[in-house]
Amino acid sequence: MGNRTFTMIKPDAVANGHIGAILNKISEAGFRIVAMKMTRLSGQKAGEFYAVHKERPFYGELVEFMSSGHIVAAILEKDNAVEDFRKLIGATNPANAEEGTIRKMYAESIGRNAIHGSDSDENAQIEGDFFFSGLEKF
Ligand code: CMP
């Protein structure tokens, strides 16, 4: 068993019809999908999820966007999951993302950037627990 990361396919990528293509890239890159659900965040839930960014100028915009449509949340497993997944998705701003990365291919802007990936093992655990119960995470 490898270690785990957490991802969300964001409302822009869901609305633009990219769920299938993104899940394909994730599987081809060697990640096992441990748990997955399509859901929609309320403004309150999106605010809780991104509470670490509360003082940032883009917080309001971020919460509004993340609650604007459906998302796909998933827990992924692979050796070196957090770091390898962040390489696969590319830089936060798609303008700086490398060719072939998910954000380069599917993101619209720094805010509407198609996909989230946890930035540490600790946050992967916290974020996965936000969406999935113990019974859902085998
Ligand atoms: P994510 O990695 O999911 O977590 C924080 C998010 O804040 C990040 O993706 C971006 O989509 C968003 N973000 C970061 N910087 C900006 C910005 N300058 N303007 C709007 N959104 C931003």
Care to describe what's here?
The chain is globular. The protein has one domain: Alpha-Beta Plaits (2-Layer Sandwich), CATH 3.30.70. The protein has helices at residues 11-15, 19-28, 43-49, 59-66, 81-89, 102-106, 121-131, and strands at residues 3-9, 32-40, 70-78, 115-117. A 4-stranded antiparallel sheet has the order 2-3-1-4, with helices on both faces. It starts with a strand and ends in a 7-residue tail after the last helix. It is α+β, with helices and mostly antiparallel strands and 138 residues long. The site of adenosine-3',5'-cyclic-monophosphate (CMP) has 9 residues, from helix 4.
Provide the spatial order of strands within the biggest beta sheet.
Answer: 2-3-1-4
Q: CATH topology, what is it called?
A: Alpha-Beta Plaits
Order of helices and strands: EHHEHHEHHEH
Report the biggest beta sheet as strand number plus sense, adding barrel if it closes. 4 strands, antiparallel
**Bound chemical compounds:** adenosine-3',5'-cyclic-monophosphate
- Assigned CATH class: Alpha Beta
Ranges where pLDDT stays below 50 over 5 or more residues in a row are none
Roughly what is the average pLDDT, rounded to an integer?
Answer: 97
Shape: globular
Specify the helix fraction band: 25-40%
Strand content: 15-25%
The CATH superfamily appears as Nucleoside diphosphate kinase-like domain
Into how many domains do the coordinates divide?
A: 1
What is the SS-derived class? alpha+beta
Gyration radius (Cα, Å) is 14 Å
CATH 2nd-level architecture: 2-Layer Sandwich
Termini separation: 11 Å
Number of helices: 7
Beta strand count? 4
